[in-house]
């Protein structure tokens, strides 16, 4: 991991805030990117998550850390490379045995964001946690476009041109 690619907490907070204020789907994208930032799953792992995979504490609990169950990945591989003709393909976790899962703790800031996201989107336990505008899988092109726009709007030009946060998945442990 190139340490120069890591965002500092102030940069990450500014990017998350900018994305949240986007007119189309900003709050939805903020929840997705906050999950990557605070928990570190690969983007394709976060895209595969369902509401039931998130364990949120009661709102009045002293401990506000949440837990995410990561059990599958939905990479964007292209229609020509899948048996179904879909853009995404469901796979086991990279570098893990078939069917293996992992549990990841989520910072209290993420707990607040996810609780609000689930409520605002009126998501049910079996629903995808992060959906596109029409309810399907959130498109990689939408994520990349929003990420690049947020970096450009928030970071000084010399930082934008540097490796800092160039990819949405540049994070410790990524």
TrEMBL record:
Keyword tags: DNA recombination
Task: Give any GO molecular function from the UniProt entry.
Answer: DNA binding
Does the entry feature the keyword DNA repair, yes or no?
no
Q: Where is the Tyr recombinase domain?
A: 2-174
The reply to whether Ubl conjugation figures as a keyword in the UniProt entry is no
Q: Which SUPFAM superfamilies match?
A: DNA breaking-rejoining enzymes
Q: What is this protein called?
A: Tyr recombinase domain-containing protein
